[in-house]
Amino acid sequence: MSGVAIVGAAECDLGVTGRSILALQAQAITRALADAGLTLADVDGLATSGVSRFSATQVADYLGLQPAWTESTFAGGSAFEMYVARAAQAIEAGQVEVVVISFASNQRSARSRSLTGTLELQMPEAQFEAPYGPLYPISYYAMAAQAYLHRYGQTPDKLAEVAVAAREWALLNPRAFRHDAGPLTADDVLATTMVSTPLRTGDCCLVTDGGGAVVLTSLERARDLARPPVRVLGYGESVTNTSMTAVDDLTTTGAVASGAAAFARAGLTPADVDVAQVYDSFTITVALSLEALGFCGRGEALDWIGGGRIRPGGDFPLDTSGGGLSYCHPGQFGILLLVEAVRQLRGECGARQVAGAEVALAHGTGGILSSHATVLLGVDR
């Protein structure tokens, strides 16, 4: 357990904004600082990605900052949970006092799903896979889904429950992209277009503009600021693969290691988690992550989430913002997992608030089940 807390959290504009990436970054950062009762003048650490190879440099320059500490590791959607660990370590070491972690993308306004160029440029190893015509990244997740359904005798309608539950949470979140779209059923998901067997468009995350930011500082300083501190209790990470050519088992992910490390560091178990924010790039991502993190056994996730367990009112509140499937997905969703976790622990979520939430988990997944990072957060006692 660290002596570090998150003291501010905010989104930038979401949906279709027409704004530049840097303008959205500035929105998220200044809103999160205002939430914390701080200003840009207080910031001496910055962690961000998604702008360019020099993301932190560009964002700092745009905001007029000269930070003493930066982090721009590109690890996909899990990067921001990784940044929490790096920031906590830097704050505890006395290297920095106030760190902002941020991300934003305008990929819907830009009419693009690509953040970093072609598959071949991202991954030279893909030369061995490209001849088979995979769609990046969905075909890779689809292979994992196909293997999972076959191995455990499961069916796509049970997988669809992940999307159905996410939509129910989105209906309670006025900022969700699908807030006014109405409820979803498993049959609705199964009626959507097949993209890469067995995943349909209903199994896939949104493509939107958006992003967010969180602000971290020492727990001692946090207790004098505007909002109740949300403590960083534990964290862990694991990087497993670039391509899938050498992956032995598509149904086991690095979340096994990242989750175990986070729980051990926090001195907690999965049973202690009151609300979970788990990256939902695709419905299968959630099923694999829940098992890897220890919430249920291997092959049990699709039965375990049944009966409304992960829907509003269920006994395992999951992706309470509506997630990447129905709330927002700007290419890398990990920052918004943290924003929602903080808001839940501060009791700020209105109709979707989980009563009495004291421990939250945020778990990011990046690439093609390539990088995994888990953060445990808790209320300050």
From TrEMBL:
Sequence ranges assigned to domain Thiolase C-terminal in this UniProt record: 236-378
Residue spans crossing the bilayer: none
Source superkingdom: Bacteria
InterPro entries found in the cross-reference section: Thiolase (IPR002155), Thiolase-like (IPR016039), Thiolase_C_2 (IPR055140)
UniProt GO MF annotations: acyltransferase activity, transferring groups other than amino-acyl groups
Keywords: Transferase
PANTHER family, A to Z: ACETYL-COA C-ACETYLTRANSFERASE, NON-SPECIFIC LIPID-TRANSFER PROTEIN-LIKE 2
Record-given protein name: Acetyl-CoA acetyltransferase
Organism: Nocardioides soli
